[in-house]
Amino acid sequence: MQNVVGQRIAVPSADNGALVMNAVENMMGSNDLTSLRTRERSARPFVVVDRIRRNAETRFLSEEQALQQKVSATEASLRQLQGQNQPQNGSAPVLSKEQQAQIEKFRRDLVQSRSSLRGVQASLREDVERLGTSLAL
After folding, report:
1. How far apart are CA 113 and CA 129, in angstroms?
2. What is the pTM assigned to this prediction?
3. Which of 34, 77, 115, 123 has its CA 20 to 30 A from that of 90?
4. How many CB atoms lie within 10 A of CB 71?
């Protein structure tokens, strides 16, 4: 029993009544009616989307890998340059003008490489998104 808006209402917990009614209807019904039951969902892959994605990956994969390597190399160079000037006593590192310029160059390269990498990844998704938009329209 459940209290709903001041009234007590019986709520089935296992719903055995529905099970029995469905079993009786199944035994009384014809074979034509029992064949109308829902069928299992079949797996229908998006063949066109998969083909577009594979084509885009072959076009942009090498460029994406090169940019990933450049980002990793730049980050490693930046960490190395910043790490070699760490003083032992915990005070602020002392960098020469040349080292500061090199750090700024690495940071600009890093930002530019990451931006290019995002552009390549957007190009990978562009054809699939275009297809989705045309289907939605």
Report:
1. 24
2. 0.46
3. 77
4. 18
